[in-house]
Amino acid sequence: MSTVILTGPPVAGSPLEADLRTLGFDVRTANDAAAAAELIAAVPAQDRVAVVDPRFVGHLHALRLALTDPRFPAAAVPGALTVQPEARAALVRATGKIPVGAGTAHLTDVLTDTLTESLDREDVGLHRVELGSLVATVALTPAQREDAQEAVAAVDDEAVRLRTAVKSRDGFFTTYCISPYSRYLARWCARRGLTPNQVTTASLLTALIAAGCAATGTRGGFVAAGLLLLFSFVLDCTDGQLARYSLQYSTMGAWLDATFDRAKEYAYYAGLALGAARGGDDVWALALGAMVLQTCRHVVDFSFNESNHDARGATANTSPTAALSDKLDGVGWTVWVRRMIVLPIGERWAMIAVLTALTTPRIVFYALLIGCALAACYTTAGRVLRSLTRRARRTDRAAQALADLADSGPLAELIAGGARGRGRAGSFLAPVMAFLSAAVLLVWVIFEGDPASWLTVGVALCSALLAGAAVSRPLKGALDWLVPPFFRAGEYTAILVLAVRSDAPGALPAAFGLVAAVAYHHYDTVYRIRGGSGAPPRWLVRATGGHEGRVLVVTVLAAALSPTGFTIALTALAVVLALLVLIESIRFWVSSGAPAVHDEGEPA
User: Fold this and answer.
1) 540, 527, 492, 97: which is closest to 287 by C-alpha?
2) Half-sphere exposure of residue 506, counting CA atoms within 13 Å on the CB side?
3) Distances (CA, A) of 72 to 66, 77, 278
């Protein structure tokens, strides 16, 4: 329930009360600050409460942005203020400090503005809405009211609402081929009471049907799969636009949108692999390779962003790389070229859909691997150059985020404890050790004549030793954000190679399922950190073994079991890990303690 308190001189004929009821508020009136304080105290603690000046003149959407956005503890525009339960105490204190008597008119004449300034000083996370062309003001005289009403009439707030439903920064394909009409689909959904979560679920179901069509292995199935995948992406854009259009942000919605994107894409890879198998072509290795490469790309994005999330020192990057980037941004066409080079989700899914309909799964995966590899090289090289030339001091929060993203298990923790204090924090030791950890393991499993041996287990132990050394000091160096991507590449690729070289029937599909389960765990870690709640509980990380523990288990299984037994063991391990991480993830995200994740969207 939401309550709005009108406090100030009444205005005859004003549509304000009707607008507030349209937004779902229970409207009450107060003659002065003392009466407003009493009404605020009477509102149940778990409810949202707003204070609005009756002389407010503005667009309905300006009120909607100020009073109904669930992402912020408090929000305000001129003449209107709202607080959620977590900021209620601050509002009560602010109203209690309003003086009465002679000489206080400047504080109570526009009470909402006085309360807004007080909340701003208390640092409760007050959000001042950026209105753009929208109007929100308090008209103190008839002339001001007339001018404000003319300004309101001059701007179509529904057009503004539709325009701002689309993300300001998006890929070329999404911006020009999807958003021009998906925003109207979002409005259609809003007017019929559909929620973003329902649209997100519809997008997932559509993608799963597309994967099923691809799995038929027929040309008709491939054509249908491509069309359905594109429609799934339209719905994927629509859910975010619906959330922004109707301000229906939610923690559950952010989690569903993020995780379903990965589930849709990787399920589609599996469908293509099954369809190719029906035609006599085994592309499971390519499908798993595409999933590994795409996941590692995302880890690079997440790690780099977290390492610079709150860097102190030179927060503005003045490196030559940044200067060149800014210069290129001044040339219009280069902005779109650079956005397309990184192969974001829109361009990637469009490529996959078209190639699925016109060619074969093998060609789809070849194009995907080449495109993602080039994009990964471009983005990673640019970030390395920025990091080397940027003078910024990483914070403890950034170091902890990188340590959480590293996903080190009990074995690496034990080794790191023994190596504590050796080496200098902030040097290149951590990324070098992480690189060697992955390289030693991968070179062995790729070039050794028989990697399914106990010697490989020994190499995995050496890799774990290097991994422990990499995380033995706080990850505050310029390139320490590379540590998690190196660990991910080493773990995922080792599982891929061991499955390929086992020559066991079904080993690659089992490895695909195992990597998918582990990748979900890593994405879940990212979204928890971005939400401000930190990584998953340590018991979960220890129970899943950490990256080094899982590699060690897989090498032991390869050495100890027959090819058929290896496939069965990989399948069982995938099922156990999937259940473990899914149950804990679902428990967390549906709980009241889950963080309020803002609608940021995904870069790729």
Assistant:
1) 492
2) 11
3) 10, 13, 51
Per DSSP, the three-state class of 79 is coil
Residue 509 · residue 459 · CB < 8 Å? no
| Backbone dihedral angles phi then psi of residue 74, each to the nearest 5 degrees | -150, 145
What interhelical angle do 251-278 and 361-389 show, nearest 10?
140
DSSP at 273: H
Distance CA 77, CA 69 (A): 12
- b/e burial code for range 337-350 (CB count within 10 A of at least 16 → b): eebeebbbbbbbbb
Angstrom CA distances, 567 to 506, 509, 557, 563, 576, stand at: 6, 9, 9, 6, 14
Count other Cβ atoms within 10 Å, centred on residue 600: 11
**Orientation of helix 454-470 relative to helix 429-447, angle to 10°:** 170
Q: Which neighbouring-strand residues pair with 313? A: 392
The predicted-structure confidence for 266-315, as pLDDT tens digits, reads as follows: 999 999 999 999 999 999 999 999 999 999 999 999 999 998 876 644 44
Q: 104 phi and psi, to 5 degrees?
A: -110, 10
CA gap 571, 499 in Å, rounded? 12
Per the structure block, which two tokens stand in for 491? 């773990």
C-alpha span between 201 and 15 (Å, rounded) = 38
Helix (H, G, I), strand (E, B) or coil at 318: coil
**Nearest to 180, CA basis, from 94, 97, 269, 172:** 172
Which is nearest to 288 in space by CA: 216, 232, 345, 368? Answer: 368
The pLDDT tens digits of the residues spanning 78-107 come to 999 999 998 988 988 888 887 665 445 545
For 472-530, the pLDDT digits (tens) are: 999 999 899 999 999 999 999 999 999 999 989 999 999 999 999 999 999 999 988 88
Is 486 in contact with 402 (CB distance < 8 Å)?
Answer: no
Closest among 84, 100, 99 to 43, alpha carbons compared: 84
Alpha-carbon span 391 to 378, nearest angstrom: 22
Nearest in space to 231 (alpha carbons), one of 177, 269, 273: 177
Q: Tell me the C-alpha distance between 352 and 290, whole Å.
A: 12
DSSP class of residue 394?
A: P
DSSP codes, 4-66:
EEEES---TT-SHHHHHHHTTEEEEEESSHHHHHHHHHHS-TTSEEEEE-TTEEE-HHHHHHH
Beta bridge partners of 80: 52, 77
Distance CA 462, CA 468 (A): 10
Alpha-carbon separation of residue 507 from 146, 246, 413 (angstroms): 74, 47, 30
Residue carrying structure tokens 């973003």: 196
* CA nearest to 578, candidates 534, 526, 524, 537: 524
